[in-house]
Specification:
With 238 residues, the chain is an alpha+beta fold. It contains 7 helices and 9 strands. The strands form 2 sheets. Strands 1, 2, 3, 4 and 5 form a 5-stranded mixed sheet that branches. It is globular, with a radius of gyration of 17 Å. The two termini are 13 Å apart.
Length: 238
């Protein structure tokens, strides 16, 4: 167990928001969730694998990921455009694209040790909208159900969607993880029907409970991670 005095780590995500072409909210949330999964599954984040996966050494990001996951799986979403985005894109990380959204995820950093290219970026006030209500999700897809009871900025909701995706990932076996990765981490993010929310949040599926650092009260249930492989009594890890 991590010592309370150990440095706290955070997973940085940066969403590209150009003034004249912002992404839709749902697209940004889904892309952020896929970005988290892409980093978790990357060989650079894996323990006991070298560049080719054969020599038993950690990937170059493995220790940072371990330090982060051993504490709170905190994520912070910041926004960038123009030259800010170009500078952020030059740092080690992975850019994941959605329909129009672009999100770059970086290996975890100490809470007070952000790279200078990222520390200047804004974290508050990231608001996005959907031009039309999103369609009903494919029942075969994993769905990250957002709480209908909480108001969150787009940046906060992106971080919560990332938490939900991570809890789902932890709950899967190797075969299910491989299948999800092969499908490009296809998923949907939707706000749950208020009438169904109590059932979802008590279903035994992975539930995100917020630590209360920003916007909402500690312990608030923000996301239920409904992956098909976890719908039949599978035990959640983590």
């Amino acid at each position: 167990m991590t010592s309370p005095d150990a440095p706290q780590f955070v997973l940085p995500l940066v969403v590209r928001i150009e003034k004249d072409a912002p992404p839709a909210r749902t697209d940004a949330l889904e892309t952020a969730a896929r970005a988290v999964l892409t980093l978790l599954s990357d060989e650079r984040a894996a323990a006991g694998t070298g560049p080719g996966g054969e020599d038993g050494e950690d990937g170059e990001w493995a220790q940072a990921v371990r330090d982060w996951q051993d504490s709170r799986i905190r994520k912070v979403v910041r926004r960038a455009r123009g030259a800010e985005w170009r500078k952020a894109s030059a740092l080690p990380g992975i850019t994941v694209t959605g329909e129009r959204a672009e999100v770059r995820v970086f290996p975890p950093v100490p809470l007070d040790g952000w790279p200078k290219e990222l520390v200047k970026l804004q974290v508050s006030g990231t608001d996005l909208d959907d031009a039309e209500p999103p369609a009903e999700p494919d029942p075969a897809l994993p769905v990250l159900w957002m709480s209908p009871e909480l108001e969150m900025s787009a940046g906060k909701a992106m971080a919560q969607a990332g938490h939900g995706a991570q809890l789902a990932w932890w709950g899967l076996d190797d075969a299910a993880r491989a299948a999800w990765r092969a499908a490009g981490f296809a998923l949907a993010v939707r706000t749950a029907d208020p009438a169904r929310w109590p059932e979802l949040s008590a279903s035994g599926l992975p539930v995100v409970r917020d630590a209360g650092f920003t916007e909402i009260a500690p312990g608030s249930c923000t996301v239920v991670a409904d992956h098909p492989a976890l719908r039949h009594g599978s035990v959640q890890r983590g």
